[in-house]
Task: inverse folding
Protein backbone atom coordinates (compact mmCIF):
# COMPACT_ATOMS: atom_id res chain seq x y z
CA UNK A 1 0.00 0.00 0.00
CA UNK A 2 3.01 2.26 -0.26
CA UNK A 3 2.54 3.66 3.25
CA UNK A 4 -0.85 5.24 2.59
CA UNK A 5 -4.40 4.23 3.35
CA UNK A 6 -6.16 3.58 0.02
CA UNK A 7 -9.68 4.10 1.34
CA UNK A 8 -9.21 7.46 3.00
CA UNK A 9 -11.66 9.89 1.45
CA UNK A 10 -13.85 7.29 -0.26
CA UNK A 11 -17.44 6.51 0.55
CA UNK A 12 -20.26 4.34 -0.70
CA UNK A 13 -23.42 6.39 -1.21
CA UNK A 14 -26.95 4.97 -1.29
CA UNK A 15 -29.96 7.25 -1.82
CA UNK A 16 -33.68 6.43 -1.64
CA UNK A 17 -36.55 8.62 -2.89
CA UNK A 18 -40.16 7.43 -2.46
CA UNK A 19 -42.04 7.39 -5.78
CA UNK A 20 -45.44 6.22 -4.48
CA UNK A 21 -47.29 2.94 -4.32
CA UNK A 22 -44.62 1.21 -2.22
CA UNK A 23 -41.92 2.03 -4.75
CA UNK A 24 -38.72 3.99 -4.47
CA UNK A 25 -36.06 5.29 -6.79
CA UNK A 26 -32.55 4.44 -5.67
CA UNK A 27 -29.22 5.71 -6.87
CA UNK A 28 -25.67 5.86 -5.60
CA UNK A 29 -22.32 4.25 -5.95
CA UNK A 30 -20.13 1.63 -4.38
CA UNK A 31 -16.36 1.93 -3.96
CA UNK A 32 -15.01 -1.55 -4.64
CA UNK A 33 -11.85 -3.57 -4.89
CA UNK A 34 -11.37 -5.44 -8.17
CA UNK A 35 -12.32 -8.80 -6.64
CA UNK A 36 -15.64 -7.31 -5.45
CA UNK A 37 -16.76 -5.87 -8.82
CA UNK A 38 -18.23 -8.98 -10.48
CA UNK A 39 -20.00 -10.39 -7.38
CA UNK A 40 -21.57 -6.99 -6.57
CA UNK A 41 -22.51 -6.47 -10.24
CA UNK A 42 -24.22 -9.87 -10.31
CA UNK A 43 -26.11 -9.17 -7.06
CA UNK A 44 -27.34 -5.85 -8.45
CA UNK A 45 -28.48 -7.34 -11.76
CA UNK A 46 -30.15 -10.29 -10.04
CA UNK A 47 -32.25 -7.80 -8.07
CA UNK A 48 -33.30 -5.53 -10.97
CA UNK A 49 -30.85 -2.78 -10.02
CA UNK A 50 -29.20 -1.28 -13.09
CA UNK A 51 -25.47 -0.61 -13.01
CA UNK A 52 -25.11 2.66 -14.88
CA UNK A 53 -21.33 3.12 -14.77
CA UNK A 54 -18.15 1.41 -13.65
CA UNK A 55 -14.95 3.44 -13.60
CA UNK A 56 -11.93 4.43 -11.56
CA UNK A 57 -10.65 7.85 -10.58
CA UNK A 58 -7.04 7.15 -9.72
CA UNK A 59 -4.28 5.88 -11.98
CA UNK A 60 -1.76 4.29 -9.62
CA UNK A 61 -3.77 3.62 -6.46
CA UNK A 62 -2.96 0.47 -4.54
CA UNK A 63 -5.15 -1.42 -4.22
CA UNK A 64 -6.96 -0.22 -7.36
CA UNK A 65 -10.49 1.04 -6.61
CA UNK A 66 -13.55 0.91 -8.85
CA UNK A 67 -16.65 3.10 -8.58
CA UNK A 68 -19.90 1.34 -9.48
CA UNK A 69 -22.92 3.62 -9.98
CA UNK A 70 -26.46 2.23 -9.90
CA UNK A 71 -30.10 3.18 -10.38
CA UNK A 72 -33.54 1.55 -10.08
CA UNK A 73 -37.20 2.42 -9.49
CA UNK A 74 -39.11 -0.56 -8.09
CA UNK A 75 -40.69 -2.05 -4.98
CA UNK A 76 -38.83 -0.63 -1.98
CA UNK A 77 -38.60 -4.02 -0.22
CA UNK A 78 -37.20 -5.68 -3.35
CA UNK A 79 -34.61 -2.93 -3.79
CA UNK A 80 -33.62 -3.03 -0.12
CA UNK A 81 -32.97 -6.78 -0.36
CA UNK A 82 -30.94 -6.24 -3.55
CA UNK A 83 -28.80 -3.55 -1.96
CA UNK A 84 -28.29 -5.70 1.14
CA UNK A 85 -27.06 -8.54 -1.10
CA UNK A 86 -24.59 -6.16 -2.77
CA UNK A 87 -23.44 -4.64 0.54
CA UNK A 88 -22.77 -8.11 1.96
CA UNK A 89 -20.36 -8.74 -0.95
CA UNK A 90 -18.48 -5.46 -0.60
CA UNK A 91 -15.85 -4.75 2.02
CA UNK A 92 -17.81 -1.94 3.68
CA UNK A 93 -17.12 -0.68 7.15
CA UNK A 94 -19.20 1.92 8.95
CA UNK A 95 -17.33 5.20 9.44
CA UNK A 96 -16.78 6.79 12.80
Result:
Amino acid sequence: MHGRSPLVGTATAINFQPTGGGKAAITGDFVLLGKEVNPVLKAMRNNAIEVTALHSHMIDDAPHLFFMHFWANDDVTKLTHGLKAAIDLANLKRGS
